[in-house]
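Sequence design from tokenized structure. All designs in this work follow the same two-part layout: the structure record, then the generated sequence. An example of the structure record is given first.
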């Protein structure tokens, strides 16, 4: 995930402008009309002086103390640093008002530095409490914004992780299928069969599908079934009618979609563990249907006594991972073996 610091900076600047402007205006409106003209102007100046140090203090507490100590679970250091910071900021705020602001509109003796540093009660009531109240509201909102951003970042990371895992699963399946198909063509070429060129043409159609549809998130089921037809035709070139019996029944909603290569991988698996491993007749049945809720894909193949179609095999585990990443828990994946028949059923949400 690409982190965009300029986006976070812009968001923070806009929030701070809005928050601190609203806080200052709220204080000004609250005091408006309670005093005569001169007194209202004086109160406004005092509020402005406090406001400056509220901004500085709240940002220092959040970006320095909280980020460096509280977030790292250094709670004792954080507490001591917070108390010291509140005291020093309050002192600096009073010094600024007494020696920087009041000389311009009040002609009275100035408090000594000793009095400023030691009059804790006055600091607390007139400076520290206002600083704490403003900082508390500011930091609370910053935590809400921070939680929202972290949640969005986590969601984006999980999404990108799922996409990477899907790509990884496809990269595991595609070379496996291609390797078996090339072996088929190699076997035909050794016998100088006229079916070699037809096999290459079929393989070209399949590779075109893998290259251009494989990287996508989903494809229409009709396109997946078309490439399965190419694959079945390619595999059928290797076997006589006595060795291989294929039946297919299609009754599904034309708008349904699935992750690419999902069904093709299972068809390839049926050939590999059926006709590819047995000298007896192999029967492969493919059934695709749909109802109002699910798109249903069933495939079964016969296998010999010594053939072990392992329901926990790597290929089937990869298919289950792909289904889980794509549909979360909204799918059904059943694998079973009864006598000499290996069956796989997939139910995914139908696109109506």
């Amino acid at each position: 995930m690409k982190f965009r610091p300029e986006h976070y900076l812009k968001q923070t600047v806009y929030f701070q402008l809005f928050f601190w402007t609203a806080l200052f205006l709220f204080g000004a409106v609250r005091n408006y009309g309670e005093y005569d003209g001169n007194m209202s102007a004086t109160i406004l100046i005092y509020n402005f002086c406090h406001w400056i140090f509220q901004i500085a203090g709240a940002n220092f507490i959040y970006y320095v103390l909280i980020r460096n100590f509280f977030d790292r679970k250094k709670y004792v250091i954080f507490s001591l640093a917070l108390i010291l910071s509140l005291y020093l900021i309050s002192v600096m705020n009073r010094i600024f008002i007494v020696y920087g602001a009041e000389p311009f509109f009040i002609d009275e003796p100035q408090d000594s530095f000793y009095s400023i540093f030691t009059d804790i009660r006055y600091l607390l009531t007139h400076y520290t409490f206002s600083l704490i109240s403003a900082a508390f509201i500011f930091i609370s909102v910053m935590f809400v914004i921070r939680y929202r951003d972290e949640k969005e970042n986590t969601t984006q990371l999980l999404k990108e992780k799922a996409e990477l895992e899907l790509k990884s699963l496809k990269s595991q399946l595609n070379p496996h299928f291609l390797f078996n198909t090339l072996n088929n063509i190699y076997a035909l070429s050794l016998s100088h069969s006229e079916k070699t060129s037809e096999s290459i043409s079929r393989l070209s159609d399949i590779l075109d599908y893998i290259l251009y549809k494989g990287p996508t998130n989903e494809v229409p089921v009709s396109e997946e079934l078309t490439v399965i037809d190419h694959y079945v035709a390619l595999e059928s070139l290797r076997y006589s009618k006595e060795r291989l019996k294929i039946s297919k029944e299609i009754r599904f909603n034309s708008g349904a979609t699935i992750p690419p290569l999902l069904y093709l991988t299972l068809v390839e698996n049926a050939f590999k563990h059926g006709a590819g491993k047995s000298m007896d007749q192999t029967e492969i049945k493919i059934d695709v249907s749909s109802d109002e809720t699910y798109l249903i894909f069933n495939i079964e193949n016969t296998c010999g006594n010594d053939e072990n179609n392992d329901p926990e095999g790597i290929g089937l585990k990869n298919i289950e991972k792909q289904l889980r990443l794509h549909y979360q828990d909204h799918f059904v994946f059943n694998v079973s073996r009864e006598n000499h028949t290996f069956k796989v059923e997939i139910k995914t949400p139908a696109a109506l």
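The chain has a mean pLDDT of 81. We note this feature because it recurs in several other targets discussed in the main text.
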